[in-house]
Every structure is written in structure tokens, then in C-alpha cells.
Amino acid sequence: MNSHQFKQVYEWLGINLNTLGCVMLDLEPLDNMRATDAYKAALPLYFAKNKERFWIDGWVCDKVPHITLLYGLLAKAKSLELHIGAVLCDWHINEVEIEDIGFFESPYSDESYWCIVAHIKVTPELLEGHRRLEFLPHINTFDGYKPHMTIAYIQKEWGEEKRHQWIEYLKELWLGRKLKVKQTLNLGDRA
Predict the structure, then answer these.
(1) Which residue range(s) make up the domain with 115?
(2) Which of 30, 73, 76, 183 is the most exposed place for a label (fewest CB within 10 A)?
(3) What is the pTM (predicted TM-score) of this model?
(4) Could you tell me if residue 89 is inside a domain?
(5) What is the structure's pLDDT at 191?
């Protein structure tokens, strides 16, 4: 279940789900996360039809690799910077671990893609950061906190078997790998 199923409710409330505030943790990429021409040629990358969804942009883990600490702030994160700093005072995390590779279906009826992701192991430190941010005015857009790093958006027409093979290949490369967390928060101004 996700908020996109209740689009009319948010329209009535005057809330655009695509423009909610977001706090992210930028990551140091692994050497083999850079998009190469071979990757781009091998994958049917998907790019947003609706330019308001600028983040749906093909191979993305080499741009600003990150995980979301909290999405859904009712104001832009930059405008809440002091408050974010207050709730995260004395909180830090140095690294995250890739626990699995998987995919999400597009939540948009007008965009047909799979979002390939590296699922991040939920640690007490990561969960604490998320929970602290929940004290700020926000709405949950998805059920539960599922930290992940988006790898790529690919066209569904590619087929489930090829998607599965690609995910298995990425598991061989990245499963159990740790990524260093940059110490400056990304308040939506770098992704």
C-alpha cells in the first residue's frame, strides 16, 4: 500500500506527493557502480515521461548514490535544516551494508518501469535516524521504512527473466558490501 493509491485525497489537501521534503544520506560509491557504455547498452533504461519526476533517470547509482532517511516532509528539507539538525543532534552513522538486491514496481500508473534497488540492512543506528526525523511534520508515502539505494530504472518490457538475471548478477557483485556514508546530510539539493 502506498500514498499514490489515494491521489485524490492529497489533491484535496493541496499536497503534491512529488514535491515533499526529503532527508538523504549520500554514499561513497563502489568502484563498479559507475555506468559504463556496456551497462547502458545492455539495459533498457527508463527515463521519466513526467519531468516532475526528475529522479526517474535511467542508471542513477553513479550520480549521487544515496539512501533516504525520511521522505514525506511537509516542507522542503532545506527550509527545515535547523529542525533537522536539532532532531538529529548527536546522531551519526558511518556505513551501511547492502543486504539484498531487488526491485520495486512503479507506483505511477502512467510510468511503466521497475526500480532496481540495493536493499540496505536496517541497523539500530539507521532506524534511530529515521525515527528521529519522524518527529517533524510529514506524511508516510509508503508502508514501513525500507532503506534502499536506487541503482537503475528499467523498462518493464525487458521481461521478468532478464530482470531476474540482472539482479542475480548484481548480487554477485555487491551483496554484503559496505558503503561509507558521507557526513553531510543531503536535503534534496543534490539528488
Answers:
(1) 3-186
(2) 183
(3) 0.87
(4) yes
(5) 47
Residue 164: inside a domain: yes
Local structure of residue 76 (DSSP, 8 states)? -
CA separation for the pair 181, 135 (Å, rounded): 23
CA distances for 152 relative to 20, 100, 145, angstroms: 22, 15, 20
* Pairing outcome for strands 95-105 and 178-186: antiparallel
Distance CA 6, CA 73 (A): 17
Can you name the residues that pair with 96 across neighbouring β-strands?
A: 179
Which set of grid coordinates corresponds to residue 21?
A: 521534503
Q: How many domains does the chain have?
A: 1
Q: Is 80 exposed, middle or buried (0-12, 13-18, 19+ CB in 10 A)?
A: buried
Burial 116-131 (b: 16+ CB within 10 A, else e): bbbbbebeeebeebbe
Residue 69's domain is classified under what CATH number?
3.90.1140
C-alpha distances (whole Å) from 79 to each of 21, 27, 122, 129 are: 9, 23, 28, 19
27 found inside a domain: yes
- Confidence at 40, pLDDT banded by 50, 70, 90: low
d(C-alpha 22, C-alpha 139), whole Å:
11
Residue 178, Cβ neighbours under 10 Å: how many?
14
In a domain? residue 191: no
